[in-house]
Amino acid sequence: MGGTRWGSPRSSEAESGGVRAGRRTVEVHRPDKVLFPGEGRAKEYTKDDLVSYYREVAPFMLPHLRGRPLMLERHPDGLDGPRFMQKNLQAHDPDWINRIEVPKEGGTVCHPVCDDTATLLYLADQASLTLHRWLARVDAIDRPDLLVFDLDPAGDSADAFDSVRRAARQLGELLDRIELPSALMTTGSRGLHVVVPINGQHDFDEAREFARTVADTLADAHPDELTTAARKKDRGNRLYVDVQRNAYAQTAVAPFTVRARPGAPVATPISWDQLDEPDLGPRRWTIDNAVDQARTDPWSALPRRGRALGPARRKLDALQ
After folding, report:
1. Across the strands, what pairs with 258?
2. Per-residue pLDDT tens for 74-128?
C-alpha cells in the first residue's frame, strides 16, 4: 500500500503538501496519487512514496547526477497512463533549477541539471519516475567521462539473466586485462550495466568507437553467446552488448533512479562480489530497499579519477 516507509515520519510540512529540502520547501501535489498500481505480487506506490524515496536516497544519488543534463521519463497518471520523454524545461518550472542549453539541429534544448535535493524532489513531484543522464558534464558537454555497456538479454527469464551474469564476468575480465576499472549496476529492467569511468579527454566519437571495439572483441571471443548486432532479427538467442548510449546527446538510466515498471524497481549499483549472489536479478531492489543497498557503498573500489583510453586501446589492440 502507499505511504511513507523511509526515515522519520512525515513532517507537518509534508502533511500540508510541502517537503523541506535544504533551504527550500518543495510542494507535493496530489501525494496520494497512485503511480504504481498493485498488480499480482507487485505493491502499490503513490507519489508520496516516490518523493519520500528520492528524498532518502538523495545523498547517494546526487553525486551521479550533479553537472549532467537529464532527460525525464514522466508518467503524470502513473503506469496506467501515457508516458512521455521530456528534455526541455518548461516555462512554469522554477528558475532555481539549474539548466544547460545545448545546440541541436534547428535550435537548442534546455535540459534540467539536478544539483540538489530540492530539484530531485521537484522532478519527482512532476511524476518524473526515471531520470536518464548524459555521460558528459555541462563543463565539457562533448567529452564523456563515462562509458556504459548495456547487457541486454534475449528474454526475461531466469535463464536469460544467467546469460547476463556470464557476460558481465566476461566483460569485467576483459576490462581488467586492459586495466580499466569498472562497476556494475542492475538496470531495474532486464539486464545489467557495466560502467567505466574515463578521464573526459576524448570526444564522443572516440569513446563510442573504443566501446564498440571492446564489445566486438568480447563478442568475437564468445560468438555463440554474445552479439553486437543492432537489429533484433540478427541476434537470435544471443545477448546483445549494446554500446549505443556512448554517443553525443544519448543518455543512460541514472544510478538509484526508479524504473517505470510494476513494483517500482530501482537501477541499483552493486559490487562485483554481488554478481554471484543467487537471488540477484535486474529488479532485486525497489524503492523499499534500495537505500539500504546504497548505504553499503557498492562502488567504493572505483578510483576517483577515470582512466585515459590511449593505454587501454593499445592493450586491446595487442589482445586482438
Report:
1. 266
2. 999 999 999 999 999 999 999 999 999 999 888 999 999 999 999 999 999 999 9
Strands (E), the chain: 18-21, 24-27, 34-36, 45-46, 70-74, 84-86, 98-104, 107-113, 128-134, 146-152, 183-186, 192-197, 226-227, 239-242, 251-253, 269-270
Q: Which of 4-13, 38-47, 89-98, 136-145 has the lowest mean pLDDT?
A: 4-13
Which residues contact residue 20 at a Cβ distance below 8 angstroms, ignoring those fewer than 6 apart?
Answer: 11, 13, 14, 26
Q: What is the mean pLDDT of residues 219-234?
A: 94
Contact 120, 58 (CB under 8 A): yes
Q: Give just the sign of the alpha carbon dihedral 205, 211, 212, 217.
A: positive
pLDDT score recorded for residue 105: 85
**In the numeric block, which cell numbers belong to residue 23?**
533551504
**Short-list 112, 107, 58, 61, CA closest to 86:** 112
Pairing of strands 226-227, 107-113: unpaired
The CA–CA distances, whole Å, from 111 to 46, 82, 108, 308, 316 equal: 26, 21, 9, 28, 36
The residue written with cell numbers 533484433 in the block is 232
Task: State the average pLDDT over residues 281-293.
Answer: 97
Q: Which residues contact 139 (CB under 8 A, 6 or more apart)?
A: 67
Residue 298 backbone phi and psi in degrees, to 5: -65, -20
- What is the rounded CA–CA span in Å between residue 158 and residue 16? 44
Indicate the pTM of the whole model.
Answer: 0.92
Cβ neighbours of 3 (radius 10 Å): 12
Identify the H or E element spanning 123: helix 117-125
**How far is Cα 105 from Cα 119, in angstroms, rounded to an integer?**
28
Residue reference for cell 553499503: 296
> Rounded to the nearest 5 degrees, what angle is found at the Cα of 134, between the Cα atoms of 286 and 314?
110
